[in-house]
Amino acid sequence: MALKVGVVGLRGIGNRHADCHAADALAELVAVCDIVKQRADETAKKHGVPAYYSLKDMLQNEELDIVDVCTGGPENGGWHYEPVMEALDAGRNVLVEKPISNDIEKAREMVAYAQEKDVYLGCNLNHYFTEPARQARKYMDDGRVGEQIYCLHRMGFPGGVSTYSPGAAPNAKGFPYFHVKAFLSHPFSIMRYFCGDITHVQAFMGRPSFRIAAGDPMVSVNSIHVRFQSGAVGYLFSQRGDTTMGLGGWWSVEVGGTKGTFCIENCVEKCTFFPAPGSEGAAQPEKLGLGQAPEPVVHNTGETDFGATFPQRIHAFLEDVTDRVPKHELRASGRDALATLEYTFAAIESYEEGGILVRPFPLPLVEHIPAEREGT
């Protein structure tokens, strides 16, 4: 039986989520909600479902299984806490947009309360619900990467001085860490997905002269060095339209190991594998001249629309809830989203203290609930 879903917050992202639920066989969109009546009414009319103007009223629908929280607020996560906690308190499963919150203490509360209520809390960390990411994980699972050595991630909109205009949006203007909080959840989620927990963070951040001249306080250029629990090292470069990057355009991640390296470009488009010399199927080292490397293997999906990640990620959440997977096995869980925020706040602390080394706040322990107890 399809899961009954209600979506809260109906700007662009909320409507995208509503479309995904309406098109998914595992879901039945039964309600939409926004404090702005016109937005709620327009989406309700489109999908033929009731419109609500407060979450309290929507939660009176007792058959509701999932509340999908797509509210925005300051720094794009400032209005997540109240609707998430209200839905959790009502015993509903919740999917929330990223970042899980713009406030680390509130994020910790949300994750703890979901565990207390024994319901699913997922987050729209959608960048690894792609075919290139699946191919990369297969390389890892098949042992073709070997022991991880490094991870390099770059993410940012193409731009420069000629494309700059001061941001006037009320959720961004006057917030120096708008970009850091709203953006870094995605690259940190990717790095953790492939390489595991991060134990050390060191950050150097800034803004180009054209932002300074405009009086724009946004800390838009982020250079972050990390160490993973495995011992591997990583580097994240993020920017918000301050420059134009090469490989992969706006998005690329490269993970290198003792047996091979993969690189994903443009998130949804391409995964290339570079076997280490001497590994299975690769040229022998003695046959390679200086600067030469074995032939790479390229998997090009032909997909360039980043929007394709939304239905795939939302379907995965619906699938996990339908299958009643143990809470600790939920893909892109609230705990996973909290991890990205812990790393983000560690990076902010490092930057504010002149680039000191910071250990992120420990994540809550995973509670392994036996399958037979799930949902009781």
The oligomeric state is single chain
Can you tell me the residue ranges where pLDDT is under 50 for at least 5 consecutive residues? 371-376
Order of helices and strands: EHEHEHEHEHEHEHHEHEEEEEEHH
Looking at CATH, the homologous superfamily of the largest domain is: Dihydrodipicolinate Reductase, domain 2
Overall, the morphology is globular
Strand order of the largest sheet: 8-9-10-7-11-12-13-14
**What is the mean predicted local confidence, pLDDT?**
94
Q: Which class do the helix and strand fractions yield?
A: alpha/beta
Which radius of gyration do the C-alpha atoms yield? Answer: 21 Å
Helix content: 25-40%
**CATH-defined architecture of the largest domain:** 2-Layer Sandwich
Q: How many structural domains can be distinguished in the coordinates?
A: 2
CATH topology category name of the largest domain: Dihydrodipicolinate Reductase, domain 2
Q: In percent, how much strand structure appears in the residues?
A: 15-25%
What would CATH call the class of the largest domain?
Alpha Beta
Largest sheet: 8 strands, mixed
Number of DSSP-assigned strands: 14
- How large is the count of helical segments? 11
Nutshell version of this structure?
It is built from eleven helices and 14 strands.
